[in-house]
Specification:
Elements (H helix, E strand, L loop, with lengths): L1 H9 L3 E7 L11 E7 L3 H9 L6 E4 L5 E3 L4 E7 L7 E4 L3 E5 L4 H10 L15 H7 L2 E2 L2 E2 L4 E8 L4 E5 L4 E3 L2 E3 L4 E9 L8 H14 L19 H7 L6 E2 L2 E3 L7 E3 L5 H19 L8 E3 L3
Parallel strand pairs: 2-5, 3-5, 4-18
Antiparallel strand pairs: 1-2, 6-7, 7-14, 8-9, 10-11, 10-14, 12-13, 15-16, 16-17
The structure holds flavin-adenine dinucleotide (FAD).
Flavin-adenine dinucleotide binds next to strand 3, helix 4, strand 8 and strand 14.
Length: about 300
């Protein structure tokens, strides 16, 4: 910890110590990060990585797909939301998107610049960085359907340009060629399709009907197994409304866990394990989490 404090003294950008991560996650739970680093330029980011040898680094997007345990995260958490957030139109129905931009920003940009189909991004509350890592998707489209190339940064703070073919992409899974973090991506959209205001509204209405959007959740907790939908399996196991501590399975959508206000990360993790056990018993299916569980108890 002392070494980390010394490192941050030499580097530009903002460093916060023992910063509670509950402030940055959509479940509103999670213990502190030893260091919470907010770079103000690519150079800051690079300098921080160069001087941070052997210290664990966790990258944070909008915190809408992570469960940070109550003990928090050791080492440094890097948050790029405040500076890497530009979206620029490029030739041939393309745009360059930095990872701190939100999926909603991209959907609105696409609507304004006649790019599409991108309405599916509108209801995903994450950042483009998170969407690249998760291959986030909805309504039949996935993020990597549109990725042409990416700019990434490695553990030494060196920036590389990689092509889509350098990655192995599947449902909510992206395998990278080496340890890296995403900085920006070039997205190429269809020559004939656009994104319309009515699609944005239609998708929003559809989500409002089926998902508990006004509550503190992390979206779908489990990936859909090969056969069936995780939500339907959980509902058929009789778990809607099931509660542990301050959290419960949503009555609106069984694949959502709601923090009712006083949940701890442990409550949520215990509920996740309970669901996995119950679904295994009832359907003999292993549910895998879509949500990433990070940090220490
Ligand atoms: C109400 C609600 C609805 C949702 N609907 C959908 C949906 O329809 N479809 C869907 O796919 N998801 C959905 N989600 C889940 C979530 O929004 C997506 O998975 C999103 O892509 C996560 O982005 P994020 O910025 O919040 O990532 P985070 O939760 O901050 O991080 C996710 C992972 O990515 C890593 N990471 C983040 N940025 C970078 C980077 N630049 N480089 C390397 N690693 C990075 C983090 O370390 C972490 O491991 C929903 C969530 C909520 C709360």
């Amino acid at each position: 910890m002392c070494i980390l404090i010394e490192i941050t003294k030499k580097i530009k950008g903002q460093s916060l110590f023992n910063e509670p991560l509950s402030k940055y996650t959509s479940w509103k739970v999670g213990g502190p990060a030893d260091i919470f680093f907010i770079p103000q330029s690519r150079n800051d980011l690079s300098d921080f990585l160069k001087s941070n040898h052997d210290k664990p680094i966790t990258w944070l997007g909008n915190g809408t797909n992570i469960l940070v345990r109550d003990g928090g995260i050791r080492g440094a958490v890097i948050a790029t939301k405040k500076f890497l957030n530009e979206i620029k139109k490029e030739e041939h129905n393309a745009c360059r998107v930095e990872v701190g931009a939100s999926c909603m920003d991209l959907a609105l940009f696409a609507e304004k610049n006649e790019l599409g189909p991108a309405a599916f991004f509108s209801g995903i509350p994450g950042s483009i960085g998170g969407a690249l890592v998760m291959n986030a998707g909805s309504f039949g489209h996935e993020t990597w359907d549109f990725v042409d190339s990416v700019e990434v940064i490695d553990e030494e703070g060196v920036i590389h340009n990689l092509n889509r073919k350098d990655f192995k992409v599947s449902y909510r899974t992206v395998k990278c060629p080496f340890p890296l973090w995403f900085v920006s991506c070039l997205m190429k959209f269809s020559e004939s399709e656009t994104t319309t205001k009515s699609e944005l509204k239609e998708y929003r209405d559809q989500r409002l009907k089926t998902q508990p959007l006004n509550e503190d959740t992390c979206g779908s907790v489990f990936k859909n197994p090969e056969k069936g939908h995780a939500g339907a399996l959980i509902e058929r196991a009789g778990l809607k409304g099931h509660r542990i501590g301050g959290c419960s399975i949503s009555n609106k959508h069984a694949n959502f866990i709601v923090n009712e206000g006083s949940a701890t990360s442990k409550n949520i993790e215990d509920l996740i394990k309970h669901v996995q056990k119950a679904v295994k018993k009832k359907h003999n299916i292993d549910l895998e989490t879509e949500v990433r569980i990070l940090g220490e108890d």
